[in-house]
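Progress note, project year one: complex with adenine.
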Amino acid sequence: MTEMQRFIEGLPKTELHMHIEGSLEPELMFELAKRNDIKLPYASVEEVRKAYQFTELQDFLDIYYQGMGVLQTVQDFYDLTMAYMTKIHAQKVQHTEIFFDPQGHTERGVSFETAIDGITRALKDAETEYGITSKLIMCFLRHLDELSAERTLDTALSFKTRIAGVGLDSSELGHPPSKFQNVFARAKSEGFLLVAHAGEEGPPEYVKEALDLLHVDRLDHGNRSLEDDGLTARLIKEQMALTVCPLSNYKLAGVTDMTKHPLKKMLDLGLKATINSDDPAYFGGYMTENYLAVADALDLTKEEIATLARNGIEASFCDEDEKIVLMAKLNSYLQMNGVA
Ligand code: ADE
Ligand code: ZN
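Model obtained:
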């Protein structure tokens, strides 16, 4: 093991962009299919893994929506979430802000309540068992219409105390943020924090719409912002956080070679970039693997890794007291490792 690997493995981490349905490992997919008497279109775990070859976002999404079909009961959502929390506990994640896709479940007859009950029970148990704090963000599926998002927000109001924010995910091209202006305005007025996927596959204009029309508090991905100098300057000036997902970018072919990943450029420019896993079961790694991939390919220094970890805390939706606790733990690790 190299010194950098040891440093990254022990690093206290914060995750801000992870779809819980995207943490469904093939082994658990098979177990839940059996439990719920569902026939999968794959004969084995190996066959599932082989199917995870994507040339663009939509390829992945088709398999992702099919995979989540095995999630039927509160216990299924609990097991899914607990498996993720156990995994990230081993990877020294201290705080996580996870997405879920309620419409991915309600559209196939599984209630909002079933999904949120299983997820939030596991989050609570993981905080007790592992000390990991968490927040839940509900995403609207952008390939559906705004009315469907409005109905989802109506339902979410009954579970408001358990949901910190709303987001926007799924097929980006052809579904600009402007399509969801009204529902985001209402979510804001209801007190939800706001995020949106933008600039993952979509053009810089979509990032501008997320800022100017949705008024997001944080941007998910944002990679294509770099194509527009004015937008990049604005993101730097406003210190708008970007939740960057390196292995996801690689697997979905936005980045053909990790050495060409824009993260190093983002850091050099002073953009507030963070490291996240997106859909770890589909893209080949959780937080540690994402940090290792960029550290290696971009030859990052320990100081740059420390900046990414600090950015994760600063960009989180924790209150100031919680951030102080997370930062103290990180700083003590950095000090022990000779990083100023
Ligand atoms: N849903 C799950 N993962 C996603 C991603 N990377 N982009 C858009 N929607 C998603
Ligand atoms: Zn995502």
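The chain has one domain: 3-317.
The beta strands are 13-19, 93-100, 133-141, 165-169, 193-198, 218-221, 241-244, 272-275.
No further modelling is planned for this target in the current period.
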